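ok, trying the design again with the full structure, not the truncated one.
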């Protein structure tokens, strides 16, 4: 009986821990990943303008906790033509949603449009 109780309690504790790890908690952060593929006609100057404008959003939109970016350096050749990746960090869905409708983000989207070939967006709650 003691063994059965121990097994049940252990299972219950493991189940609760799994559920807590799967749900966003106080220490979890929301990552907003954005990748760009530029049109073939996009010039280096236009792409640089996009890079600078995207980086500047961190100073214009207070809900952005962190912003990191870079260009593809993978030797795997699985990028499907996407060259740039941006990772933005938010504290909550609400903060991410405020970023999406922020006038500075809208203005950035308008300047990006003419040179953008494709975009990929993926949001997730970070886990360790």
């Amino acid at each position: 009986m003691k063994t059965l109780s121990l097994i049940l309690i252990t299972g219950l504790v493991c189940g609760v821990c799994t559920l807590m790890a799967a749900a966003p908690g106080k220490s979890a952060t929301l990552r907003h990943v954005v990748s760009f593929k530029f049109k073939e006609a996009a010039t280096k100057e236009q792409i640089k303008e996009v890079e600078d404008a995207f980086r500047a959003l961190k100073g214009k939109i207070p809900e952005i906790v962190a912003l990191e970016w870079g260009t593809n350096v993978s030797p795997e050749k699985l990028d499907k033509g996407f060259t740039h990746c941006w990772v933005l960090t938010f504290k909550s869905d609400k903060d991410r949603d405020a970023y999406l409708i922020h006038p500075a983000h809208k203005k950035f989207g308008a300047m990006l449009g003419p040179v953008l070939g494709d975009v990929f967006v993926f949001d997730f709650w970070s886990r360790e």
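Keeping the full-length input from now on. The beta strands are 30-38, 66-71, 84-90, 116-125.
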